[in-house]
Amino acid sequence: MTSLITFCFVGFTTIGVIKAITNFKLRKRMIEAGLVNEEAIELLKDGSKENHFSALKWGLIFFFGGISLIAINNLDFYYDSSAAYGIVIMATSLGFLLYFAFMRNEIKKEEAKNK
Known about the structure:
Layout: H1 2-32, H2 38-74, H3 82-114
């Protein structure tokens, strides 16, 4: 199990670093080519905002997943019982729902600001 977690961590970290480097190079080439108009700037801003909210989503999911695992440990459930699975699924779903509510509020704020 530890090797799987290590493999996933290294894989996701590698993908994140490669993505950051390629985004940097793309932005640098766009600036050097003179493609710095309002549309290009807005496109680059939206990507960073999307990554910010994606991190929030995964942070909420992992946070509530961790809380569910702590609850399972403290309630002395067997890790393979259906109650343990139910607690984990409900907690991660709660994380998704909180993210959805937050994003809905953010979209409403953006629409009100643009009107």
